[in-house]
Amino acid sequence: EDALLPAPQNISILSTNMKHFLTWSPVIVQGETVRYSVEFQGEYERVYANESWIPSSECCLITATECNITEDISATVAYALRVRAELGASRSQWGTLQGFFNRITTSLTPPVLKVIADGYHLLVELEDMGPAFQFRVLYWKKGQERRMQVKVVKEVSSVAHLDTMEAGADYCVKAQTYVEAINRSSSFSQTQCVRAQGDTSMWL
Amino acid sequence: SGELYCSLLNPRNVRFESINMKNVLHWSAPEGTGNGVLYKVKYSVYGVGKWIRKPECRNINRTWCDLSSETSDYEEQYYASVKAFLNGMFSDWVETSRFNPLTDTKIDPPLVSVSSTDKSISIVLTAPEKWKRSPEEESVSLLQVYPGLQYNVSVLNKKTKKRWFFSISNHTLVVPWLEPGTAYCVSAQIHVSTPLLDSGFSKEHCIATLKDK
Amino acid sequence: TAGNKIFHFGACRVSMSTTEIRAGFTAIKANIQARDPIRTLSILSYPHSLHKVQSSDRCCITHHLFNFYVDKVFKHCKTEDSFVNRKISSIANSFLSMKRKLGQCHEQNQCTCGQESTEKYKQILANYEGLNVTSAAMKSLGELDILLDWME
Q1: A158 pLDDT above the threshold of 80
Q2: Could C145 and B100 be called an inter-chain contact, meaning their C-beta atoms sit closer than 8 Å?
Q3: Binning pLDDT at 50, 70 and 90, where does residue B33 land?
Q4: Residues B63 and B119 placed together within one structural domain of the fold
Q5: Does residue B98 share a domain with residue B16?
Q6: Among B73, B104, B135, which residue terminates a domain?
Q7: Domain boundary residue among B69, B104, B139?
Q8: Which cysteines form disulfides (chain C) (predicted)?
Q9: Are residues B39 and B122 in the same domain?
């Protein structure tokens, strides 16, 4: 290491919807391009493998001051993270994230959904948030909140069918995400209501 | 690999190809060899001491050998190996990687049958059967092999071009309250989450709801 | 819960996900198994398959095996391939997470060890110690799907 090159500072984690990013302040050397390398250490490495560190899969000699560590944080345990600056042959000391990061703390946002009434059929279109996500969809006939139904949607490749509706009736839908790997759910989305085709007299 | 003049080049790309646990060993002929090459095959159960010859695949000139019977216990894992010989020359034994029938098989799409009334269509899905030695042998559905098996069903309204998607565990699905006199096309896929195995989608089965009485 | 898998190990019920371990193992299976030339011995399945273990002993055997992999196996599986090493780290840390969940059952006395599981685990250790440590560790890692197939 080279005392001239200071270690990166202000190291922090941004984690939303199971996408985790390590960020830090740039190390400025006039007229030079400083590069950075990131390493991670899971609880297993700390406790059972002599506190060994593993190079990040994405961030070796990068120029950005942000690293996507999602692939590296692949278990629900406490991870240590560190980054150092490199300029030619000289390397700074490691700057280490204060404390550990466990992906169980990721912030989960409610899913974006679009509710569709297609004739007498209630359908929902959900935003694809990646393989880690499932969706818990709640739907009910307006005014009959106590008879709320639940459907878990795992594949979001197209429009998911929820149920058939009574003619002319209003139905409401809300959804939350669920991440099996951390056994946590987001808060619910806004409720959306749609009306089935036809008029209510059809059912008399 | 062996020198050219006293030993034969090795068979290439030796691997299991498995569909619904019909486990067939395949390979390619040694490079540069035309017809006339013969082969013999042996297999072993991983963790058990011995290699076992497959008599029906001794001195064969084809480049496959059905080992379904020998590898039907999917709680075991297997290796297979092939040796080529021609005019007194012979190659090395060339092995497959370790074969796990449970995770390394491919699953066919389900059988789909559709019927309709004026306002609904009924879909019946049948999971493929595990390979069996003979028609008389009792059938085992892949549903029994993979208890978590689910069906993803796609229903396309040919008039509106809208496609709906159902994810179901049981094998029947009724879609009521449809438009009379309209064509709907159905296809289905099998999804197993552990181990992760997806079949392709079946070909589309189209049917029209009856015209309004 | 919406989708986490509930594993039943005798009286013990544990909610956990093996999806990522499966994915990690599938990504390195060919590489790891190719490093194990010994076809005639299995650490987990020799002489008897895990499938022969009685339901009442499932929790104890699983508890032993989680400890076996965490304490003995993963640390001796370093390779020259950084991709493989990262996947092994991912699997090892996931095992740590599962070991902790199953440990709760052990503490609540739902994970009693019968004679069969004790004998079976002794056999696994004997198989392991019958090889040099790197070969034994690499073979054990290559048999992870045997454990997962049996667990699921």
Answers
A1: no
A2: yes
A3: confident
A4: no
A5: yes
A6: B104
A7: B104
A8: 12-105, 59-111, 60-113
A9: no
- Alpha-carbon distance of C117 to C60, in angstroms, equals 7
CATH code of the domain covering residue C135: 1.20.1250.10
Facing residue for B166 by CB, picked from A119, A161, A165: A161
Q: Please indicate whether, in this complex, the C-beta atoms of C82 and A55 are within 8 angstroms of each other.
A: yes
Same domain, B86 and B139: no
pTM value is 0.91
The answer to which of A95-99, A119-123, A180-184, C47-51 has the lowest mean pLDDT is C47-51
Kindly report the CA angle at C70 between C60 and C103, in degrees rounded to 5?
40
Same domain, B116 and B97: no
Distance CA C55, CA C146 (A): 17
Distance from CA of A117 to the nearest CA of C (A): 25
Domain that residue B55 falls in? 12-104
| Residues B83 and B133 reside in one and the same domain | no
Are B80 and B49 contained in the same domain?
yes
Q: How far B155 CA sits from the closest chain C CA (Å)?
A: 25
A120 contact residues in B (CB cutoff 8 A): 176-177
Which strands sit side by side in the sheet containing A19-23, from one edge to the other? Answer: A12-16, A19-23, A66-68
Both tokens of C70, joined, read: 């965490």
Q: Are A135 and A175 in contact (CB under 8 A)?
A: yes
pLDDT of residue C106: 78
Q: How many domains does the structure of chain B reveal? A: 2
- CATH label of the domain that carries residue B139: 2.60.40.10
CB atoms within 10 A of CB C34: 12
Write the DSSP string, C108-123: TT-----HHHHHHHHH
Chains A and C form CB pairs within 8 A to the count of 75
Residue B70, in any domain of the structure:
yes
Are residues B200 and B141 part of one domain?
A: yes
Across B13-22, B169-178, C3-12, least confident range: C3-12
In order of B19, B52, B150, B200, C139, the CA distances from B109 in angstroms are: 11, 34, 12, 6, 35
Place of tokens 């202000």: A10
Cβ of B167 within 8 Å of Cβ of A154? The answer is yes
Contact list, C2 vs chain B (CB under 8 Å) = none
Prediction ipTM score:
0.90
Q: Is residue B198 part of a domain?
A: yes
Question: What does the pLDDT read at residue A3?
Answer: 54
Q: In this predicted model, what pLDDT tens digit does every residue of B158-195 receive, in sequence order?
A: 999 999 999 999 999 999 999 999 999 999 999 998 89
Chain C partners within 8 Å of A181 (Cβ): 17, 19-20
Tell me, yes or no, whether B6 lies in a domain: no
